[in-house]
Amino acid sequence: MEAVVEAVSEVIGQAAGLDPIQKLFLNAIRDYSLKS
After folding, report:
1. pLDDT digit string, tens, across residues 8-21
2. What is the pLDDT at residue 15?
3. pLDDT averaged over every residue in the chain
C-alpha cells in the first residue's frame, strides 16, 4: 500500500495541470490510503 501512496503523492506533486476536482480526488485517495 505504501507504494501506492508514494505513486499517488508523486502524481499530485506533478498535478499542476490537473483540474481542482481531480486534485481533490487524488488527495482523498492518498488520505484514505494513509489512514488504512
Report:
1. 777 776 766 667 88
2. 64
3. 80
CA angle 27, 21, 23 (to 5 degrees): 35
Alpha-carbon torsion angle 20, 23, 24, 25, nearest 10 = 120
Closest by CA position to 22, among listed 11, 6, 32: 11
Spatial separation of the C-alpha atoms in residues 20 and 11, rounded to whole Å: 14
> Could you give the CA distance from residue 36 to residue 14 in angstroms, rounded to a whole number?
24
Answer yes or no: are the C-beta atoms of 9 and 27 closer than 8 Å. Answer: no
pTM of the model: 0.46
